[in-house]
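Slide 14.
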Amino acid sequence: MNILMCKPTFFDVDYQINPWMRQERPVNKARAQSQWQSLYQTIQQLGGKIDLIEPQQGLPDMVFTANAGLIHRKKVIVANFKHPERQGESQYFKNWFAQNHFQVFETDIPFEGAGDALFAGETLFVGHGFRSHHRIVHWIEEQWERPVTALELVNPSFYHLDTCFCPLNSTNALWYPAAFSKKSQQLLENELNLLSVSQKEAELFACNAVVINRDVILPKDCTKIITLLENQGFSTHSISTTEFILSGGSCKCLTLHTS
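Slide 15: predicted structure.
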């Protein structure tokens, strides 16, 4: 399994584009580097192969590589970021994908990659409502000739799908139900076996987990969901991501599965 990451060299909270970000709460740069390194090393210990993209000054959120694009079988839809503060990232990610022999697709519809688009097996779920526009669902269906399950996000604190939903495999997933519209809750309940995360642990970013086969890497202190996962036969690995939560991201946000 290959995963793309970006060192937090320039990571900081330089602006406010989600409810978690507060410029008056500075990032501890040394702690952020240590937390990122712990995630990096844990992924490697679990057999993940990590590729790195060069961080760029002036793009502090480039560390959240999950948003770079949606990948499936050497095809990628490059992110078209909603907020101007992040739009400069797209060209760097596009260049990396092209250099690594991906077939690159681009869209003028707001779309934030694997932050809002997640596979459970071959089923693709796409979140919309805050960062990605609902029109992207039909666009993906046309471009990739595959069905998409659209999920409406309704809680601004869970502005990306990967903050409130985590497929564990083709049939099981973590989720925080209150992040979704009633219709989307019903869609998910009809399609997957769901392990519900409490509000407290959702706000610790329990759903923002990295899944490598039967191993799940998730933020520290999510004790209830860890117990649920281990009862389901998963192995769990806890990482402190407090500095990245200041910017509204955690383990999954810091990674992009590229194969």
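Speaker note: The chain has a mean pLDDT of 97.
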